[in-house]
Amino acid sequence: MVELARVIRDLREEVGQAIAAAEGEALRFELGSIELDLSVALESSGQAGAKVRFWVVESGADAAVRATSAQRVSLTLRPALAGADDPPYVSGRAGAHER
Predict the structure, then answer these.
(1) In a domain, 81, yes or no
(2) Domain of 9?
(3) Is 55 helix (H, G, I), strand (E, B) or coil?
(4) Which residues contact 73 (CB under 8 A, 6 or more apart)?
(5) Rounded to 5, what percent of the chain is helix, strand, coil?
(6) Sign of the CA dihedral 21, 22, 27, 28?
(7) How much is the average pLDDT of 19-33?
(8) Which of 21, 36, 43, 76 supports an S-S bond with 91, CB 3.0-4.6 Å?
(9) Is 99 a domain residue?
């Protein structure tokens, strides 16, 4: 299992790479909402004041965890660049017929 925070951190890094790749490209895509549908397992300790941790269930482990405490969680993330009013763009490759 992977921590939910790690999944979001890795997603941020991947989207950042796609945004950086958009610079100077002829064909770009406006980045809209990113929707994630995840299976998560909850973990909490019996200590007072302890936090609940969310673990994303990796592919293949879903069946084993589902029998215990796995839940489905949907997240909608709206990417924005710090200090920018316009939405971020990601790149695509222009074909030979496009300029």
Answers:
(1) yes
(2) 2-92
(3) strand
(4) 37, 38, 39, 40, 54
(5) 25, 30, 45
(6) positive
(7) 90
(8) 21
(9) no
